[in-house]
């Protein structure tokens, strides 16, 4: 890549507004994004002009260019106010992606404001980062316990052999339970918030209203924890930065809830899928007991954040075969960059059991997923995946992999469902599950020593309706 620092684009080099653009979000992209990236790369090189719901955007496709954009914060800005088309009022009215980018929170801060927010996250998340602190240890134990309880509930509902959707009946409820624990949600707020996050992630007709309610609930949670601090992320964020208003903390919590549920959930299911579809190197690392490596390999093939959040050029800059103008919008595509990396290919990345940490699934540069969040999410994913293969002797996809339904948006690529036929291991303790709680049951699932455990059991019984009641028809 040629980079001409501080040079202005030469007269006559095309502006994105003057180029024909191919809309990205098509049914072909839904089914097979890889072939779309390849075609764009063949036509345009490492950077391609595309249309996103009627707005022209530069899609960055090659590994080297994606890394360059992610790393260089002086050239590639996050604050939406740098976007020229927005400043000049040229965006279509109600462009659906704009509202999210207008929300002022860490992901869209630059410079000092961003560095201060990162410091707040760093100290607030540190207690949960590993199992060496009481909070970290308790959270780890809770994740494993919730996973076991969900599999026990599955055994009670559907038998020790049967069919399940590992997205709706395992991954999603697991992460919602983890969210209430990590965020310190009181029961009266937790249940409804979790139901609304479920509706939001489901993307059904009530998703818009549910999103607004969930986001308002985060502000109430912030106010609650300001008044009654506990050993949870919300309280620790306030401890790190007492100047955070309830509204600002609510916005941060909401963004974290999306990462913790949607993105982490996709990483769990994408990893399970790579194992189930028989990806040889992924399976090899799993049988070698290298589960962290299994997750890395799956992230390389199928990163949960497929295309990173937008960046805006601070000045004219040459990228790939084009000149990107100051104020242009770019979307760095991690999925395309991984495809490029695998093609450069180097069979040692794909074939060996040596680490594949070159993946960009956690991002890179100053906005990379904070290290404590990476540790935390990595622990959740490895526990969730590990418990499935510990309890099940058999798990087979009930649909051919190329017929699985995907949710392909401008940012995230995740499965809508992960249907499997399973058989529980003879040795699995969940073969003899304790009775499953139903809504209104007086008897708890098991004696629960901590308030938070009783809370999780209550939540589990509320979630049961969503997990086994209306089986979705996506
Ligand atoms: C498997 C799960 C996760 C993945 C794959 C992931 C991935 C990412 C990526 C790619 C970014 C950078 C986005 C960009 O540069 O455009 C990011 C940022 C971030 N993530 Fe994660 N994340 C995960 C889980 C989490 C969790 C569980 C939390 C918190 C509880 C979290 C908190 C954050 C925060 C606060 C940022 C913003 C950092 C900044 O802008 O400086 N993430 N994450």
Describe this structure in words.
Helix content is 52%, strand content 11%. By secondary structure, it is an alpha+beta fold. The strands form four sheets. The chain has a six-stranded mixed sheet with strand order 1-2-3-9-6-4. The protein contains 18 helices and 13 strands. Helix 9 (187-202) runs parallel beside helix 18 (451-469). The chain has one domain: Cytochrome p450 (Orthogonal Bundle). The longest helix has 31 residues, at 246-276. Bound molecules: protoporphyrin IX containing FE (HEM). Residues 106-107, 118, 121, 256, 259-260, 263-264, 267, 304-305, 308-309, 361-363, 367-370, 373, 376-377, 381 line the site of protoporphyrin IX containing FE. It comes from Streptomyces phyllanthi. This is Cytochrome P450. InterPro entries: Cyt_P450_B, Cyt_P450_sf.
Oligomer classification: single chain
Name every ligand kind in the structure.
protoporphyrin IX containing FE
* Poorly predicted runs: 439-449, 470-474
**CATH class wording:** Mainly Alpha
CATH architectural name: Orthogonal Bundle
The major β-sheet equals: 6 strands, mixed
Mean pLDDT: 88
Shape: globular
CATH topology, which one?
Answer: Cytochrome p450
Q: What's the total count of β strands?
A: 13
Fraction of residues in H or I helices: 40-55%
GO molecular function, one term: monooxygenase activity
Protein name: Cytochrome P450
Family: Belongs to the cytochrome P450 family.
InterPro entries: Cyt_P450_B, Cyt_P450_sf
Can you lay out the helices and strands and say which pair or pack?
Blueprint: E1 22-23, H1 27-31, H2 33-44, E2 47-52, E3 55-60, H3 63-71, E4 76-77, H4 84-87, H5 98-102, H6 111-129, H7 134-158, E5 161-165, H8 167-183, H9 187-202, H10 207-227, H11 233-240, H12 246-276, H13 280-287, H14 291-301, E6 311-313, E7 317-319, E8 322-324, E9 329-332, H15 334-344, H16 347-351, H17 371-391, E10 392-397, E11 406-408, E12 413-415, E13 419-424, H18 451-469
Parallel strand pairs: 1-2, 3-9
Antiparallel strand pairs: 2-3, 4-6, 5-13, 6-9, 7-8, 10-13, 11-12
Helix pairs in contact: 3-15, 6-11, 6-17, 7-8, 7-17, 7-18, 8-9, 8-12, 8-18, 9-10, 9-18, 10-12, 12-14, 12-17, 13-14
Bound molecules: protoporphyrin IX containing FE.
